[in-house]
Design brief:
With 215 residues, this protein is an alpha/beta fold. Helix content is 48%, strand content 15%. It has a 5-stranded parallel β-sheet with strand order 2-3-1-4-7, with helices on both faces. A two-stranded antiparallel ribbon has the order 5-6. The structure holds adenosine-5'-diphosphate (ADP) (2 copies) and zinc ion.
Length: 215
């Protein structure tokens, strides 16, 4: 059977990472999160990571060719699996063209794009209170999704961290980038009838239930 290809799109802080991890587990999909992959490279201080970091710290997109290399290796290694869930890729029209080309090699195409929408004003509160587990990458929020023990991952028992790019000025820049480069991609998928729009300003459970109902 052909692998199903799903893409999660939404502004920074929409809840993509939170949902992606759960959905991939529940549906046994291969999760490809470019943000997590890039941050892993930054941590390991690879050449790719060092170059990527300078863009990430400013809230700009990392050049597509760098991201493309990571993605391609990942698709190839997992071909034949149940399905793929992309979180954070494609991020603009050119990356979408590239993804189309990569998938075509395996006679695959994007089946559906899940667009999680959250308004800009809610995003600042979400991102300034976000914490992540450095080990398993699980996402927490100090108000809406607290860890059981103060600032410690429930699963790994290690201290949670704040992402370097979750600072007000960088969040602002990421939102600008989102509106100018990613929003046109949403419009494109809308035009070709592949979008399911989901209101992200509800509880994580409600958002999850709606995603499950469309995939
Ligand atoms: P993204 O991957 O889209 O940037 P995250 O999944 O990291 O978003 O979520 C951003 C922040 O918002 C995190 O702190 C997360 O715990 C919190 N969050 C995620 N979904 C919701 C929700 N439905 N309601 C309130 N807060 C949420
Ligand atoms: P968020 O959804 O909260 O913005 P991500 O983890 O998806 O966070 O992305 C964090 C940063 O990593 C982005 O601001 C960008 O610099 C880089 N990045 C992630 N995915 C891509 C991509 N597909 N293309 C270019 N840069 C990316
Ligand atoms: Zn953890």
């Amino acid at each position: 059977m052909k692998s199903k290809i799903y893409v999660l799109i939404g502004p920074p802080g929409a809840g993509k990472g939170t949902q992606a991890k759960n959905i991939a587990n529940l549906k046994d999909f291969v999760l490809i999160s470019t943000g997590d992959l890039l941050r892993e490279n930054v941590e390991r201080k690879t050449e790719l990571g060092m170059t990527a970091k300078s863009y990430m710290d400013k809230g700009e997109l990392v050049p597509t060719d760098l991201v493309a290399r990571m993605i391609k290796a990942n698709i190839k290694a997992n071909i034949g699996k149940n399905g793929f869930l992309f979180d954070g890729f494609p991020r603009d029209l050119s990356q979408n063209t590239l993804l189309g080309e990569m998938l075509k090699e395996f006679d695959l195409e994007v089946d559906k794009v899940i667009y999680i929408n959250v308004k800009d004003d809610a995003i600042y509160e979400r991102l300034t209170n976000r914490r992540v587990c450095p080990k398993c990458k699980r996402v927490y929020h100090m108000k809406y999704n607290r860890p059981k023990h103060d600032e410690e991952c429930d699963d790994c028992k290690v201290s949670l961290i704040t992402r370097d790019d979750d600072k007000l000025d960088v969040i602002k820049k990421r939102l600008e980038v989102y509106h100018s480069l990613t929003q046109p991609l949403v419009d494109h998928f809308e035009k070709i009838g592949k979008i399911s729009r989901i209101d992200g300003e509800r509880t994580p459970r409600e958002v999850e239930a709606e995603i499950l109902s469309v995939i």
